[in-house]
């Protein structure tokens, strides 16, 4: 999909400059949400036994609700920090920002993120302004510029495809094992 953002080129160059140029005064963190995480059978590719192929349930019930994963990727170290929550609102996003601020207390944080409305909430804007965090927004329909999307693709492929988790704890353990 082509971007309709009139500032697409400027925003793209800003993000790419953060990726390409090492910062002296801070750290670049890519943030995004992954989900919703349903408890459902997911097809995937695997070597199948000759006579008995692996089967997935044909039906499932959504009795346990969904979960949302809020994650950040530190470009300096390549480490992923995440939280899995039952909701995805500005409060959960602000909690993630506070955890990132506590992790790197003396550095300025450049947070690359999309235009999801909780990222622009008034209370998030107020807290960010006083805590040395600069939000760098991606252009509209430019989520492919966010480096963490590649990590999510790998997470989906290696940890979730071909699975049929029966509980959120089981699914969270699979995600944690992959990220470790």
What can you tell me about this protein's structure?
It holds the Pfam family DDE_3. One of its GO terms (molecular function) is nucleic acid binding. α2 packs parallel to α3. The protein has 180 residues and is an alpha/beta fold. The chain has a single domain (8-33, 63-179), classed as Nucleotidyltransferase, domain 5 (2-Layer Sandwich), CATH 3.30.420. It has a five-stranded mixed sheet with strand order 3-2-1-4-5, with helices on both faces. Helix content is 33%, strand content 21%. The chain has five helices and five strands; from the N terminus they run αβββαβαβαα.
* CATH architecture call: 2-Layer Sandwich
| Spatial ordering of strands, largest sheet | 3-2-1-4-5
Write down the secondary-structure element order: HEEEHEHEHH
Instruction: Note the total helix count.
Output: 5
Helix and strand content put the structural class at alpha/beta
Q: Whole-number average pLDDT?
A: 88
CATH overall fold name: Nucleotidyltransferase, domain 5
| Radius of gyration, taken over Cα atoms and rounded to an integer in Å | 18 Å
Number of domains: 1
Instruction: Assign the CATH superfamily.
Output: Ribonuclease H-like superfamily/Ribonuclease H
Question: What profile does the largest beta sheet have?
Answer: 5 strands, mixed
Strand content: 15-25%
Shape, per Cα inertia axes: globular
Fraction of residues in helix: 25-40%
Question: Unreliable segments (pLDDT under 50, ≥5 consecutive)?
Answer: none
CATH top level? Alpha Beta
The termini sit apart by 34 Å
Q: How many β-strand stretches?
A: 5
């Amino acid at each position: 999909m082509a971007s309709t953002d009139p500032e697409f080129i400027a925003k793209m160059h800003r993000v790419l400059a953060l990726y390409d140029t090492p910062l002296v005064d801070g750290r670049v963190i890519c943030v995004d949400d992954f989900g919703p995480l349903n408890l459902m059978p997911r097809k995937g590719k695997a070597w199948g036994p000759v006579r008995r192929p692996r089967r997935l349930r044909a039906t499932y019930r959504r009795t346990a609700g969904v979960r949302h994963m809020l994650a950040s990727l530190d470009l300096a170290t390549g480490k992923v920090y995440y939280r899995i929550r039952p909701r995805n609102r500005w409060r959960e996003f602000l909690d993630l920002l506070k955890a990132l601020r506590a992790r790197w207390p003396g550095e300025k944080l450049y947070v690359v993120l999309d235009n999801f409305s909780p990222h622009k909430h008034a209370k998030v804007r107020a807290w960010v302004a006083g805590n040395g965090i600069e939000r760098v927004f991606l252009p509209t329909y430019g989520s492919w510029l966010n480096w963490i999307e590649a990590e999510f693709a790998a997470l989906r492929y290696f940890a979730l495809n071909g699975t049929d988790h029966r509980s959120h704890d089981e699914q969270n353990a699979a995600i944690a094992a992959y990220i470790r």
